[in-house]
Design a protein that fits this description.
With 143 residues, the chain is mainly beta. The chain has a domain of 89 residues: Immunoglobulin-like. The protein is 8% helix and 32% strand. The protein contains one helix and seven strands, in the order αβββββββ. The strands form two sheets. It has a four-stranded antiparallel sheet with strand order 1-2-7-6, with no helix packed on it. 9% of the residues are buried. About 6% of the residues have low confidence.
Length: 143
């Protein structure tokens, strides 16, 4: 019996690379590692919308950039606890630097993007660029 491999012709090469990189976890102490925030991405008629949970992160310390239809979110969440690390029984809350780069599904106008933070959720609305229609060129013939 052969294994069935799902064919996904519409996946962008960047998405596949993002999946591979998101599964890579560097070795070291968890407190030294950064993290990659999960994102929800969807679109409406005029915008591509990206949402990510950044609870406990000061929105003023988050950098958002859009270049070549790729969204990058990076920043740092601060540790405010006075507990010495060796006293932890369990440490699962992610703190430290974070970075996420996501290819957008459409051409966008990055300089018109708007971001808002509400209740620990960062919402970025990026206007889609108008579709470029192909130009028809008539061939002139000499008679």
């Amino acid at each position: 019996m052969t294994a069935i491999i799902r064919w996904a012709p519409l996946l962008e090469p960047f998405e596949e690379m993002d999946k591979v990189l998101s599964e890579f976890v560097p070795t070291g102490r968890p407190s030294q590692m950064g993290f990659m925030p999960a994102v929800d991405m969807y679109e409406d008629k005029d915008n591509v919308i990206v949402e990510t949970q950044l609870a406990g992160v000061d929105p003023e310390k988050v950098d958002i950039a859009i270049e070549n239809d790729v969204l990058t979110i990076k920043g740092e969440s601060e540790k405010k606890s006075e507990v010495d690390e060796k006293n932890y029984y369990r440490k699962e809350i992610r703190r430290g630097s974070f970075y996420r780069s996501v290819p957008l599904p459409a051409h966008v106008i990055g300089e018109k993007a708007v971001a808002e933070a509400d209740g620990g959720v960062l919402k970025i609305m990026i206007p889609k660029a108008p579709e470029v229609k192909p130009k028809t060129i008539k061939i002139k013939t000499k008679k």
